[in-house]
Amino acid sequence: MVQQRIVHFSGDVQGVGFRYTAIRTAGAFDVTGYVRNLPDGRVECVVEGQDDEIEAFLTELTERMGRHVRRKEQQIAPYSGLFDSFDVRF
């Protein structure tokens, strides 16, 4: 099933290479979307693709950055098809 997931990571997630790691990790999976820092200190990750690819990407990202993540909140949204790649947004 193709979907979009909006994920907010909180903890010590800014200034630790989180966005760079997300970009590198996404390259190994068939996902599109973006990652960005939020003004409140969280990192937002919007990911589109097949459910299993999204799940694998998020699992790998969480494992790589786990020591910095205290909380991860997810919501599922309809697939938009707006993204051609996985990028950093500012």
Characterise this structure.
By secondary structure, this protein is an alpha+beta fold. The chain is built from 2 helices and 5 strands, in the order E-H-E-E-H-E-E. Strands 4-1-3-2-5 form a 5-stranded mixed beta sheet, with helices on one face. Helix 1 (18-26) runs antiparallel to helix 2 (51-65). The longest helix is centred in the middle third of the chain and has 15 residues, at 51-65. It is globular, with a radius of gyration of 12 Å. It starts with a strand and ends with a strand.
For the CA atoms, what is the radius of gyration?
A: 12 Å
Strands side by side in the biggest sheet: 4-1-3-2-5
Q: Return the CATH class.
A: Alpha Beta
Structure annotation, total helices: 2
- Count of the separate structural domains: 1
Mean model confidence by pLDDT: 97
- Using the 3D structure, state the CATH architecture: 2-Layer Sandwich
Largest sheet: 5 strands, mixed
What portion of residues belong to β-strands? Answer: 35-45%
Number of strands: 5
User: Helices and strands: which structural class?
Assistant: alpha+beta
Helix content range of the residues, please?
25-40%
Report the CATH topology name: Alpha-Beta Plaits
Characterize this entry briefly:
The chain has helices spanning 18-26, 51-65, and strands spanning 2-11, 31-37, 43-50, 69-77, 86-88. It is built from two helices and five strands.
Throw out a few tags for this protein.
90 residues, alpha+beta, Alpha-Beta Plaits, 5-stranded mixed β-sheet, 2 helices, 5 strands
